[in-house]
Design goal:
Blueprint: H1 3-8, E1 21-23, H2 30-40, H3 48-67, E2 73-81, E3 93-101, H4 108-117, E4 126-132, E5 135-147, E6 156-168, E7 173-179, H5 185-200
Antiparallel strand pairs: 1-2, 2-3, 3-7, 4-5, 5-6, 6-7
Helix pairs in contact: 2-3
């Protein structure tokens, strides 16, 4: 993909601020980012040097995620979910917003079936249409499993991916706001509750 092609579907995003969601940097800006973190987590009992060490790791992660963009996937932004309304630096989940190519006739059901085909589903995906400032989007919860064949009884390790996506048939792209697989299903449900208002605030897709 050339620079021009990348620019053709990189939106001018606007996302509301939520204390519980800490946006990670997309470009190196360590000093500024650590200043933001220290101001935000005013209830965190951890020593300053510990907070700065965690903040440095998050800064580097955000920059690294954007650098992973390639011809098929463009990483636009990432956030971590923090407890107590974002006032303690204890990461409860990570979500990324990226843009992927699709065929112009792709429907939300088609897209979910594609996502489901890449994992071992434990149960059928849960889908729900939500309203956002960028138009209708689809909330999906994919509960998946990994089977440990070396353990008696073939124990299953469950996890859940929470994602919200928008389809742009004209450009032939989908915008995905998606979590990492979460082994704690209660935490996944909590993340989903926080993710909906974040997605609802997104403008420019």
């Amino acid at each position: 993909m050339t620079g021009t092609e990348t620019d053709s579907f990189e939106p001018a995003l606007e996302v509301d601020g939520f204390r519980a969601w800490l946006p990670l940097p997309t470009e190196p800006s360590l000093t500024e980012f650590l200043g933001t973190v220290l101001e935000l987590v005013d209830l965190d009992p951890q020593p300053r040097d510990v907070i700065e060490a965690i903040g440095t790791e998050l800064h580097d992660l955000g920059v690294d995620l954007v650098s992973r963009s390639d011809d098929e996937t463009l990483y636009l932004a990432s956030w971590v979910l923090l407890p107590t309304d974002g006032r303690v630096l204890d990461v409860r989940g990570l979500v990324t917003l990226c843009c992927v190519r699709i065929t112009p006739d792709t429907t939300p059901t088609d897209f979910v079936e594609h996502l489901a085909s890449e994992v071992n589903l434990y149960q059928p995906p849960v889908m729900e249409t939500i309203e956002t400032r960028s138009g209708p989007a689809t909330l999906v919860r994919l509960r998946q499993f990994v089977e440990h064949e070396n353990q008696p009884g073939g124990d299953l390790a469950l996890s859940e991916v929470v994602l919200i996506f928008w389809l742009d048939a004209e450009l032939g792209v989908a915008y995905e706001l998606t979590s990492l697989p979460m082994p704690d299903l209660v935490s996944a449900a909590d993340l989903a509750d926080h993710l909906v208002p974040l997605a609802a605030s997104v403008r420019g897709l």
